[in-house]
Amino acid sequence: MGTQQQEPVADTPDPSVSATTSADAAADATPAPGGAKPVPADPAPAPADAPAAPAEATSAPVGWAARGGALVRLLRHEWSLLVLGSIALAVLLTWPTMRHPATTIPQDTGDPTLQAWQIGWGGHALLTQPWQLWHSNTFFPEPYTYAYSDTLLGYALFGMVGSGPEAAVVRYNLLYVLVHALAFVGAYALSRQLGAGRAGAAVAGASFAYAPWKLAQAGHLHVLSMGGIALALAMLARGHGWSLRDGYRPERARPGWAVAGWLVAAWQVSLGFGIGLPFVYALALLCLGAVAGYGLSRVRRGAWPVFPRRLLVADLGGGLAFGAVTLLMAAPYFEVVARHPSGRRTIEQIAMFSPPLRGFLTAPPESWLWGERHAVARDQLGFAGEMTLLPGVVLVGLAAAGLFLSAWPVRYRLTLAAGVVVSVALASGTTLFGDGKPGYVTLVEHAPGWDGIRTPGRLVIWTTLLLGVLAAGALTVRESDPQPARWWRRPARLALLVPLLLVLVEGVNRTPHAEVPAQPAVLRGLTGPALVLPSEGTREYHVMLWSTDGFPRLVNGGASFVPPSQDRLRAASMSFPDPAAVAELRAAGVRTVVVLHGYVVGTPWQDVAQRPVTAPGVHREEHPDGVVYHLD
Among candidates 112, 232, 132, which has minimal Cα distance to 172? Predict the structure, then answer.
């Protein structure tokens, strides 16, 4: 590490470029003294009197060898290797997720089965009844029930493929692997755009995708789905011709990439507000900072800096699209809070999940390297699942080194370090200054929507990303010689792979993979509105998953709060099938009640199937694995 040599850096990542030669030329461009990097000139045009190429050379058919060579060049391209390598790495480091993708699921059968249903419902609703998207088949007869938790709506295209619980589990496992690959690609692309070399960008990508703290979130796909944050920032930076190395270069602006960045940001928000809302505020702060910097340049130079008109149009259009998606996603949540004020988070709830500072140095038990070694420290945390927030020991060390030896200008190093401090302070929740003021609690009280986020520790996403960028700067060495590296200098280049391997070792998992409960035969072809008993706890998530077989309307549903109507109907079902319970269920619109033999033992409903049916008009059907009561 140092500032004497610099690894070749691509000035802007462009997956659309397919020729290896052009990519290598961009990658080997050498910065000029003072940090400014000259833009490679276009190839010189041929002289006017140059002889024309023979006609037969231009019209000759392309042979298989030429096509094969083009394919090889495409596959050898940096961005092709990045995508293919990140997917392969994701399969390896999330193993054994893809060993039995139809029958097992990472972590446990709680939240993952809920999220498998969410993905399925999004696809089903958009295909069959898009106007009913937010009124899901669960929590009958409540409206806007799809907004009772983060929706993962952005994965609806996956939900359109296949049907039934088994397909839902396969989709979830596939996405579980792919979100790790996307996080790697996003952070790598961002670091490359900012001016990092390949080794530094790879470390940033690996740390963002496989930080130890993420192993505790293996059951929360909406938290793991953070790759769009880094990828959107990379696209926006490229679109605006901006990097840490060179600052703002209007001649490098690419309006199309700016639009793409805004659209990816909108897609990220469509996955949920748990991590999407802080991203919205971060983008707003970046926009304000850009405007302030633009005005400051006007004051210092006495003239407005160049800002291409097409780029301004791209920002206005992309920003409006991003804002529209954000408001459309937020509207149902405001409706839910208006109907159910109990869904609003309280300071007491947030305090339960607020980690102490030592939590940022503690790994979860799923960590192969640190899990057992940090057991004592973990036992001192109140809610270890949300308080074990270690970004990575190697990452922290590299980022610390990046404060002193880095390719980034000093002012940007200090800015990144300040961002790390602020993100850690906010992720600490109410533990900062004893009550979270100023800090997270201030945002809860004054920032719209912030009171819907009860787990402040997940802001460690930003800590990890900023540390990764600092580390990338430390691993980006400067080339004093614009010529390709001599053979005796290649071992030094290979040494840069050691930090990457160490970061990946910290990401090796011991995540359990639970067997997904099979759908009971009695629920196949179920018609609603229906109530499935027992109706409590994690079993609600299983019923939601099983309902992907046709999506019948159900009283059942699981979320972080319970609507009063579900509480009332559950209480009535305790005495089912007596006349009073049947009358209340009928009045609510319920027409079918299913009692599952294999799950009622030890619950308040364990003897329902043995009770006599005294209510008029109730028809009972016996099945090997349950009893169906028709109330109409």
Answer: 112
